[in-house]
Design goal:
Layout lengths: L1 H9 L6 H15 L2 H9 L24 H8 L11 E5 L3 E6 L13 H20 L2 E7 L8 E9 L6 H4 L19 H8 L8 E5 L2 H20 L1 H8 L2 E2 L2 H7 L3 E2 L7 H9 L5 H16 L5 E7 L5 H20 L3 E4 L2 H12 L4 H9 L6 E9 L19
Parallel strand pairs: 6-7
Antiparallel strand pairs: 1-2, 2-4, 3-4, 5-8, 8-10, 9-10
Length: about 400
């Protein structure tokens, strides 16, 4: 797959020390300072997608044929702010999925909407990995109503069954925050195929493709981004998950990174060389990227709508569907970028008890009715594949 090939060519092995030193020496010659060359080495300028924090993307086969292989697939799922708010209990006949409240994102997700959607994404990967490892799955959502953190129970039985196409895309799926190709639309047939993946009661995908509607959605996303950075609690919660330091990234193995921010390779390298950016600089970079790079190049926006966006079961099912859509898009060479600003502001409005400006805008975008927006994203075609995001080791998420 093109994504896999690009990810391979992006990497520079940390194991090849001489190659790293050679690049560092070149940097010294260009920049004229040995200290800069060392900083380039120390801050991972030449190590895009490398190191232990990225090993889970290629180490799933170590657990082949066991339930742990299903968990290894689950931890590669899309999730808000890469908080990875999941825990698993594993036996030979069952996997239990739990929410990890310690990894909540505070004011960005006051009602845990994004947490449960993210858990649904992990659940979908887990189930898709079953046949490849000799298991059939039976899923029960929220099996104990008195224990809402117990998100799902997956009962396993040994059974030989074919591996699906979507499973093969799990290690290649990455959120792509880069600019997309301007003027290139996603074919209607592809949008219809993604809509056909939705199978949750009244749930449906709402596609925003016409120019006036895209402009309206884009303007709202920019305004929501500005509102988040102007909200002290949301701004702090957002920046808490940004990893600028190489050692911190490798230690925590979560969060958003410079490499995955959608910057060009040169800009990302320079950003790593410079001292850590202030919160104000991070905020400005996010607003600029949303306004100048992401919104204007979206071929289409998608909104997943469900009957009740506050219901955790529907959030989990919605997450499963979003993961399926993203995997299908990956298979077809379509880039996808989850954009949570509108729902984050809508939930913040509800939390503060203020006029629901963004909540009302979301209802209007999906034409009102009895459905509610659960999550939003953009699609298009990117010249460059999305970068790998750090992931915690499978062993660290097992209860």
């Amino acid at each position: 797959m093109r994504n896999a090939e690009h990810a391979t060519t992006q990497r520079v092995s940390r194991r090849t020390l001489l190659r790293r030193v050679g690049l560092g020496a070149g940097t010294v010659l260009v920049l004229g300072a040995g200290a800069v060359g060392y900083r380039a080495y120390d801050h991972g300028v030449f190590s895009v997608g490398d190191g232990a924090a990225y090993d889970p993307w290629s180490s799933g086969k170590e657990h082949a044929g066991t339930p742990m292989a299903m968990v290894a697939a689950a931890v590669l799922a899309a999730n808000a702010h890469n908080a990875q708010a999941w825990l698993f209990r594993v036996s030979e006949t069952r996997i239990d999925l739990f929410a990890d409240r310690a990894r909540g994102t505070g004011a960005l997700d006051p009602f845990r909407r994004e947490m449960y959607v993210s858990l649904g994404c992990a659940l979908e990967n887990c189930v898709l990995a079953g046949p490849a490892n000799g298991f059939a799955s039976r899923v029960t959502l929220l099996p104990d109503p008195t224990q809402p953190l117990h998100a799902a129970r997956i009962d396993l039985t040994r059974r030989e069954s074919p591996t699906g196409d979507l499973y093969e895309q799990i290690p290649h799926r990455h959120t792509n925050r880069n600019a997309y190709q301007k003027g290139r639309s996603v074919p209607d047939a592809a949008l219809e195929a993604m809509s056909g993946l939705v199978g949750l009661g009244d749930a449906r995908l709402v596609w925003i493709t016409a120019e006036p509607e895209r402009r309206k959605m884009g303007d709202l996303l920019i305004e929501a981004t500005l509102a988040i950075v102007a909200d002290r609690d949301q701004e702090r919660a957002n920046n808490d998950w940004f990893r600028q330091d190489w050692d911190e990234l490798q230690r925590k193995r979560d969060g958003l990174t410079i490499d995955a921010a959608g910057l060009s390779g040169l800009v990302a390298a320079v950003a790593k060389l410079l001292p850590a950016q202030s919160d104000a600089a991070l905020d400005s970079g996010w607003v600029d990227g949303t306004r100048d790079r992401q919104v204007p190049t979206a071929a289409a926006f998608g909104i997943l709508a469900v009957a009740d966006s506050t219901d955790n079961a529907q959030r989990l099912e919605g997450g499963r569907l979003l993961q399926r859509v993203h995997l299908w898009a990956t298979k077809e060479g379509i880039s996808l970028h989850h954009m949570n600003q509108l729902t984050e502001r809508a939930d913040r409005e509800r939390d503060l008890g203020v006029t629901p400006r963004f909540g009302a805008a979301l209802r209007e975008l999906i034409s009102g009715g009895r459905l509610e927006a659960l999550s939003a994203f953009r699609v298009g075609y990117a010249d460059d594949a999305g970068a790998l995001s750090p992931r915690r080791a499978v062993e660290s998420v097992i209860l």
